[in-house]
Amino acid sequence: MTWRAMVLALLLALPPAEADAAQNRIVGVASVIDGDTIEIHGVRIRFFGIDAPEGGQQCRRPDGTPWRCGQQAALALQDHIGRRPIACTQRDIDRFRRVVAQCRLGNQDINGWLVAQGWAAAYVSFSRDYVAEERSARAAGIGVWSGEFIMPWDWRAGRRN
Q1: Which of 23, 76, 113, 142 is the most exposed place for a label (fewest CB within 10 A)?
Q2: Which residues of 55-78 are buried (b: 16+ CB within 10 A; e: fewer)?
Q3: Cross-strand pairs, 51
Q4: Would residue 28 count as lying in a domain?
Q5: With bands split at pLDDT 50, 70 and 90, how would you rate the model's confidence at 22?
Q6: What are phi and psi of 82, to 5 degrees?
Q7: pTM score, two decimals?
Q8: Roughly how many angstroms between the first and final C-alpha of the chain, as a whole number?
Q9: How many domains does the chain have?
C-alpha cells in the first residue's frame, strides 16, 4: 500500500465532522419507564423541562373519584410513540445519572406534547420552555387538569416526609 493510499484510508476511517455534535444525541425505539422517563439502547432518559405524575400517584376526578394519573400518563406516552424511533438531544445529566434530554418524534417535541395533552407539568424550576403548553392544557381541563392534581415535585416531597 502506498503512502497516499494509507493516508486516504486513515482519513476515510475518521468519523465525520458532525460526530461531535451527534454524541449528545440518542436515537432509537424507546421503552417507557414512566410519564417523563424512557430508555433507549440501555440509556435512561428523563425529559427536559417537564415533570409527569409518578407511577403510583393518584389524581381525583371532579366527582372526587381517585384515578391513577401517573400510570395513565405513561400509557398515553407509550400509545403516542409506539415502536417508532425517537431522537433525544442531551441537555444535562441528573442526580440519578439519567440523561436529561429534549426528545422528538419526527418533527414533534414529545416533551411539549406531554404537557399540551395534560400528562405533565412544565418544570419551571429547570425551564420555562413548556409554560404555554401547560396553560393551554389547564384551560382545556384535560389529562391531570381534569380534576384535582398535586404537582409531581410536591407529591414526591410529601412521600419523603
Answers
A1: 23
A2: eebbbeeeeeeeeebbbbbbebbe
A3: 121
A4: yes
A5: low
A6: 55, -135
A7: 0.84
A8: 70
A9: 1
Contact by Cβ (8 Å): 85, 25: no
Is residue 15 included in any domain, yes or no? no
Q: C-alpha cell of 72?
A: 395513565
Mean pLDDT of 134-150: 97
pLDDT of res. 11: 37
CA geometry: angle at 14 spanning 9 and 18, to 5°?
Answer: 140
Strands 50-51, 66-67: pairing is: unpaired
| Amino acid identity at 101 | A
Question: Residue 147: is its pLDDT beyond 50?
Answer: yes
30 and 40 in contact (C-beta within 8 Å)? yes
**1 within domain boundaries:** no
Banded pLDDT at 159 (limits 50, 70, 90): confident
- Print the domain residue range for 86: 22-160
* CATH number of the domain encompassing residue 89: 2.40.50.90
**What pLDDT, in 10s, does the model give residues 85-116?**
999 999 999 999 999 999 999 999 999 999 99
Q: Average pLDDT over the chain, rounded to whole?
A: 89
In a domain, 91, yes or no: yes
Cell numbers standing for residue 64: 372526587
CA torsion sign, 41 to 43 to 46 to 48? Answer: negative
